[in-house]
Structure formats: structure tokens, C-alpha cells
């Protein structure tokens, strides 16, 4: 049994602050995540240093690195904090809230995502609130950490002890134009497409930015004549004008007939896009949430 008197004399909040510093290796980032000032974090760290008689973190270049004592403390503390969080969550309702909040792609056109949404709709009295992840200026980690979302679908894998992040599916990307484009057929060389005007999906998404950068290797001279943060606007521009653009294969499949679009085959295939599903590990304490996760896997 724990010595409650000794625990009472020890400020357990110091351990929470320590763990946050350890995860981010940054006092300012820890302060931001905990909604306190960097000065308060520094003062708490100094108190913990005094109690443990160890610096815990030392300067390393422009950042900080943990001491061996800090590493050992983290290894034991992370498990205990996770168990404590699970205990607290057990006190909450075992059922899902009436509203289930998802952040994901602007269009859930893939069979995997569409099937998941339909499975959720089969849950009685459950309302789904779906947000376009690319339209916000917040990270998936923050959305989940501050309980702004139940599940986030993102193109970047996340490494965080408190979160589960698994690959959901891979999708091909294709170059497209409208069917009656005056110059392009079903096949084209790089030289031919570089004579055309491109669309540009202008959002703060790491994979999209990286992919657009990678494409520069063979399209460094491309002319991005139409930019938009709305994917629907990008597709409409390709439909209405003699523009070309790179889109995920499922979006093209869904819209090709209604917008009369066609795929342009290049000498080499374009990069695939990976979609990851992320959620709080503590949510697995809810039987209803586990049912949701099983729908993802089915």
C-alpha cells in the first residue's frame, strides 16, 4: 500500500510537468501544452531537481537532453501516469457521447472511409460531426490532446505515447484533366504536361506539401495557374477550364463521370498517399469506442 503521508508531501503535479518536458524536450512547448507559462514550468522543474538531487535535463546544442536519472524516471512514470489516466477515464460514462467528432480529408470518397462512416451511422442516436482536417491550423496531436476530436485521419504518422496512430489505407494519385482537353490524350510525356497550366491544392498538409515538392524534380518549370484551399474548387476548375492537376485516385473515380474527367498516364507512376487513423489511447477504456475501432478494422 502506498504511503499516503509521503505522497501528500510530494507535489504530484511536478511529475506531470516533468513528463510533458520529457516528451517534447522543450520547456516552452510543455508550457503551451499545459496552458501555463514557461516560467512556471521552469520553476516546477527546479523544485523537482531539488527534490531528486539531479539536473534531469541538460543543455545540448539549441535544445535539452535528459540525464540518465530522467530517462529512468520517465520509463517508470509513463506507465504509472497512463494507468492513472485510465483509472480517471473509467469514472466517466462507458458509452459514446451523442456527438462523435472526426477530422479527416475534405471528401471521404475511399471505400474504407465511406464504410467506416456508414458503420458509425448504424449506431443508435449517434450524431457525426465531420471536419476538413486540411482547413484548420491545428495539429492532430493538439486536436486529440485537447479533446477537440475523437478520431483524426491524417497523412502524417504521429509518435506519441498517449495516442494510437495506425495506417488506415494507401491511395494512388493520378494526373487528370477534362475529357475534351484540346491538347492532352490519355498518355503524355513530361515535356507535354509542362506546357500546360496546373492547379495547386494550397493547404497546410505535410504530405501534400512534401508531395508537391517531390514533384518539382520533374515539374520544376510547371505553371500553377489556379490555387485554392478548397478541393472541390480545384476539381471544378479542372472541369471548367483547360487545367490539369494531381489528385488521389478515389476522388477521381468518384467524380470522373459527373465532371467528365480523364486520367493522364505519365512515364512513371505518381507517389501514393498514406492515410493514418489517430485517437487517444485512453479512449480504449470505453466499450463503445472499442466498437468504433472494430468498425475501422472490419
UniProtKB/TrEMBL annotation:
Keyword DNA-binding: yes
Entry keyword set: DNA-binding, Transcription, Transcription regulation
Keyword Transcription regulation found: yes
Boundaries of every HTH lysR-type domain copy: 10-67
Pfam families: HTH_1 (PF00126), LysR_substrate (PF03466)
PROSITE patterns named in the record: HTH_LYSR
GO molecular function: DNA binding; DNA-binding transcription factor activity
Family annotation (InterPro entries): LysR-type_TF, LysR_HTH_N, LysR_subst-bd, WH-like_DNA-bd_sf, WH_DNA-bd_sf
NCBIfam families attached to this UniProt entry: TransRegCitRGProt (NF047710)
Family recorded in the similarity comment: Belongs to the LysR transcriptional regulatory family.
Official protein name in the record: LysR family transcriptional regulator
Organism: Kluyvera georgiana ATCC 51603
